C-alpha cells in the first residue's frame, strides 16, 4: 500500500506531466524520485518522442542519489526498446529500491515493466491514484487499445442549433473568448481535421495560436488535415508554413482514421464542416463533443451536424461532463451515449 508521502508524490508527478501538452505519439508521464526518508530528489517528465522518458529524466537529475530511492511514476515503466531504452531496465541499473506507479500500461508492445522490476528484486506498488493517472492519457489509452485515434468533435452554433448562414458563412458565430478557449484544446490534440467545404468557405488557419494571436512554433503545431476530394487552391491558409498539412482525398471516416493512425496520430480535433461531422457521427466514431453555443439566433441556415436521423427513435443522448460560461457563450463537453430505440408512440 502506498504511503501518504508516495500519494503526495504521485500528485506532483501528475501535475508535472500536465505541464506538457503534447507528447505525440507517446503518453504524458511524470516521475518523482523520493529518498529513503521521503524527501524529494528529482521530478522528471516526458516531453515527446525521442526525448528521455520521465523516469530517465528524473534519474539523470538524481545521479547517484537514485540508489535506494523510490520512483513514483504516473504510468507503469515501459519494458521495450523504441527510440529510447526500456525504463524498467534504467530503474534497475540506477539501483532504485521501490517503484510506485498509477496506470498499468495498456500498450502491449511496452507493457510488462512491473514484472521485470519484480524479477530484479524491486518492490512494486501498482494502481496508486490509477483513475487520475488514466485520466491524464484518456485519448492515448483509447488509441493504443482500439487501433484508431480518439475523436473530439468541436462545433459552434447559435441557440437554434445553426452553425452557418444560408449563404454558407460561419465566422464568427461565437465570441473572442470562445475562440481563445478553443486554442487551448487544439494545442492538446495531435491533428486538426476539417472538410474541404469548410476550408473553402472560411479559409481557416487550422493552427494553434497564443493569446496574442501568434502561432506556436512549427514543432508544437498539430498536423492539419483536410478531408475531401475537392481541390483547395494552394494560396489558402492551410498551406502556409505555420504548421504541417496532410490532404486525405476521402470522406470515409474509416479511411481517414486509418490514415491518421498510420501516421501515429492518437487524438484528432474534428471541426469545420457539418457534412464531415455527420459522416463521423453516423459511423459512431465521435468520442467526445465540445460545443460552443452563442446567445444568438439565425432562423435559417445549416445545422451544426448533418446526420442520417429519420425519426425521434434515432435520438442519441450526450452525457454531459462540463457546462461553463466562456465570455457570453456556453461551452458544453460531453460523451455521446448509445442510440435510443424506445417506443415513442
From TrEMBL:
PROSITE patterns per UniProt: CYT_DCMP_DEAMINASES_1, CYT_DCMP_DEAMINASES_2
Gene Ontology molecular function, alphabetical: 5-amino-6-(5-phosphoribosylamino)uracil reductase activity; diaminohydroxyphosphoribosylaminopyrimidine deaminase activity; zinc ion binding
CMP/dCMP-type deaminase domain: residues covered: 4-125
Reaction(s) this enzyme catalyzes, per UniProt: 2,5-diamino-6-hydroxy-4-(5-phosphoribosylamino)-pyrimidine + H2O + H(+) = 5-amino-6-(5-phospho-D-ribosylamino)uracil + NH4(+); 5-amino-6-(5-phospho-D-ribitylamino)uracil + NADP(+) = 5-amino-6-(5-phospho-D-ribosylamino)uracil + NADPH + H(+)
InterPro entries: APOBEC/CMP_deaminase_Zn-bd (IPR016192), CMP_dCMP_dom (IPR002125), Cytidine_deaminase-like (IPR016193), DHFR-like_dom_sf (IPR024072), Eubact_RibD (IPR004794), RibDG_C (IPR002734), Riboflavin_Biosynth_HTPR (IPR050765)
Keyword NADP belongs to the record: yes
Co-factor(s): Zn(2+)
Binding site for substrate: 170, 186, 206, 209, 271
UniProt-annotated binding residues for NADP(+): 156, 172, 202, 273-279
Keyword annotations from UniProtKB, A to Z: Hydrolase, Metal-binding, Multifunctional enzyme, NADP, Oxidoreductase, Riboflavin biosynthesis, Zinc
Cofactor remark: Binds 1 zinc ion.
CDD domains in the record: Riboflavin_deaminase-reductase (cd01284)
SUPFAM superfamilies cross-referenced by the UniProt entry: Cytidine deaminase-like, Dihydrofolate reductase-like
EC code: 3.5.4.26, 1.1.1.193
Gene3D superfamilies for this protein: Cytidine Deaminase, domain 2, Dihydrofolate Reductase, subunit A
Pathway: Cofactor biosynthesis; riboflavin biosynthesis; 5-amino-6-(D-ribitylamino)uracil from GTP: step 3/4; Cofactor biosynthesis; riboflavin biosynthesis; 5-amino-6-(D-ribitylamino)uracil from GTP: step 2/4
Binding residues annotated for Zn(2+), in chain numbering: 53, 78, 87
Gene Ontology biological-process entries: riboflavin biosynthetic process
Active site, renumbered: 55 (proton donor)
Cited function: Converts 2,5-diamino-6-(ribosylamino)-4(3h)-pyrimidinone 5'-phosphate into 5-amino-6-(ribosylamino)-2,4(1h,3h)-pyrimidinedione 5'-phosphate.
Family affiliation: In the C-terminal section; belongs to the HTP reductase family. In the N-terminal section; belongs to the cytidine and deoxycytidylate deaminase family.
Protein name per Swiss-Prot or TrEMBL: Riboflavin biosynthesis protein RibD
Organism this protein belongs to: Aeromicrobium ginsengisoli
Organism ancestry: Bacteria, Bacillati, Actinomycetota, Actinomycetes, Propionibacteriales
Amino acid at each position: 500500500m502506498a504511503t501518504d508521502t508516495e500519494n503526495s508524490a504521485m500528485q506532483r508527478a501528475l501535475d508535472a506531466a500536465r505541464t506538457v501538452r503534447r507528447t505525440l505519439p507517446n503518453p504524458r508521464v511524470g516521475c518523482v524520485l523520493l529518498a529513503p526518508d521521503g524527501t524529494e530528489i528529482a521530478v522528471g517528465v516526458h516531453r515527446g518522442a525521442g526525448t528521455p522518458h520521465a523516469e530517465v529524466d528524473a534519474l539523470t537529475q538524481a545521479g547517484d542519489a537514485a540508489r535506494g530511492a523510490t520512483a513514483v511514476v504516473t504510468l507503469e515503466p515501459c519494458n521495450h526498446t523504441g527510440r529510447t531504452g526500456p525504463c524498467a531496465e534504467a530503474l534497475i541499473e540506477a539501483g532504485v529500491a521501490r517503484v510506485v506507479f498509477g496506470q498499468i500500461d495498456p500498450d502491449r508492445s511496452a507493457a510488462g515493466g512491473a514484472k521485470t522490476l519484480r524479477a530484479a528484486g524491486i518492490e512494486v506498488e501498482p494502481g496508486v491514484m490509477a483513475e487520475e493517472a488514466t485520466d491524464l492519457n484518456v485519448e492515448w489509452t483509447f488509441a493504443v487499445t482500439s487501433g484508431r485515434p480518439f475523436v473530439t468533435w468541436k462545433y459552434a452554433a447559435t441557440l437554434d442549433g445553426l452553425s452557418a448562414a444560408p449563404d454558407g458563412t460561419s465566422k464568427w458565430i461565437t465570441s473572442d473568448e470562445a475562440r481563445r478557449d478553443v486554442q487551448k484544446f487544439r494545442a492538446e490534440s495531435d491533428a486538426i481535421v476539417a472538410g474541404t467545404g469548410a476550408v473553402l468557405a472560411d479559409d481557416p488557419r487550422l493552427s494553434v495560436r497564443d493569446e496574442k494571436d501568434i502561432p506556436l512554433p512549427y514543432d508544437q503545431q498539430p498536423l492539419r488535415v483536410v478531408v475531401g476530394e475537392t481541390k483547395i487552391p494552394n494560396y489558402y491558409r492551410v498551406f502556409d508554413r505555420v504548421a504541417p498539412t496532410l490532404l486525405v482525398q476521402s470522406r470515409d471516416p474509416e479511411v481517414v482514421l486509418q490514415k491518421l493512425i498510420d501516421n501515429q496520430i492518437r487524438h484528432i480535433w474534428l471541426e469545420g464542416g457539418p457534412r464531415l461531422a455527420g459522416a463521423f457521427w453516423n459511423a459512431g466514431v465521435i468520442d467526445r463533443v465540445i460545443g460552443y453555443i452563442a446567445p444568438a439566433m439565425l432562423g435559417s441556415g445549416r445545422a451544426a451536424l448533418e446526420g442520417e436521423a429519420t425519426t425521434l427513435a434515432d435520438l442519441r443522448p450526450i452525457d454531459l461532463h462540463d457546462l461553463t460560461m466562456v465570455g457570453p457563450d456556453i461551452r458544453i463537453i460531453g460523451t455521446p451515449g448509445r442510440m435510443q430505440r424506445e417506443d415513442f408512440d
